[in-house]
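Worked example

This section walks through a single chain of length 192. The input is the sequence exactly as stored; nothing has been trimmed or padded.
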Amino acid sequence: MANDEIEVAYPILTRGRALEDEQLIEVVQTRAQEHQLAVALRENIPGTVSDALVATNNEKVVTTLLQKATAEISRATLEYLVEQSRWIDAYQEPILRREDLPVDFAKRMYRWVSDALRQHIVENFEIDENELSRLLDDAIEEETGSTEPQQRSDAASRLIAILSEGGQATPGLLLDALEDCEVRLFIGILRQ
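Given that input, the structure is written out below as tokens.
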């Protein structure tokens, strides 16, 4: 029933307790966005299912997952999403509102988020004024030319390793990565 039309599958995917993680991952990998969103709305999403949802590279699905406070998201996956938030603004606020966000990730994001989100970081994370000044200087330096591709590559490599270990680096994921112009992700999965 979880693979049925969304009208039938929705209550099962959002609240069904009988589904195993592997079944949820299969739904995420093989079904449409509506099914993926239903899975992202579940309570207490385990890390392996979160990884599969992130691997869809679907902005709406990932944003829904990030907004789910009870979703377990590994540090490596969260780091990948932090790096993606440089280019996908929709990820920024939900990431920064997560209670499990490590302070070092918030500091990193300080360099590229809006003033309102910078204020949120100042109010919700312990960062001293000298460090804030340094972060602003880093942001200015980044705008004038930095080594950010290496950081993005490192985060992508960690996500690829997690997906490979969980058996989630599938041909379908390869196609999705290529479709979404995630060349590093595509090449990394292909190399595994």
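What to look for: The chain has a mean pLDDT of 83.
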